[in-house]
Amino acid sequence: MIFIIIIIIIIIIIIIISIIIIIIIIIIIIIIIIIIIIIIIIIIIIIITTIIITIIIIIIIIIIIIIIITTIIIIIIIIIIITTIIITIIIIITIIIIIIIIIIIIIIIIIIIITHHHHHHHHHHHHHHHHHHVSRWNIMSSSLTADFWMIILNRVHQATH
């Protein structure tokens, strides 16, 4: 009987020990699984955040590029406008200058013609003082200033008489 009891006790102890060991193993496995899950979650979070960050960075870079391009385009447009304005102003100024020069030339020519005619007239008049028909004919020949010279001739006549 004692022997049987001892055997039973030993069996019970073995069973208990084995149960404890199994429980410990199970606990360890559970802990390992939890750790693995946590690690996986962390990795996933890291991946997601990096993806998000890279996306944000890419978007920012794109925005910056767009801004730079638009500013460059705007600057180019402004430059073109300014240059066209400057060119038109220069053209207008040159045209005005040319017109002024032409006017001055015309005025000079007119003055030369008038003075020449005047001297011419006087010259002839002095030479042919008693030949009134000659001086009158000379004045008439310049048809443009005929009336003008007729007035002068009348004055000269008044002065001589």
UniProtKB/TrEMBL annotation:
Chain ranges passing through the membrane: 6-39, 46-79, 85-114
Q: Which UniProt keywords apply?
A: Membrane, Transmembrane, Transmembrane helix
Q: What is this protein called?
A: ABC transmembrane type-1 domain-containing protein
- Recorded source organism is Champsocephalus esox (pike icefish)
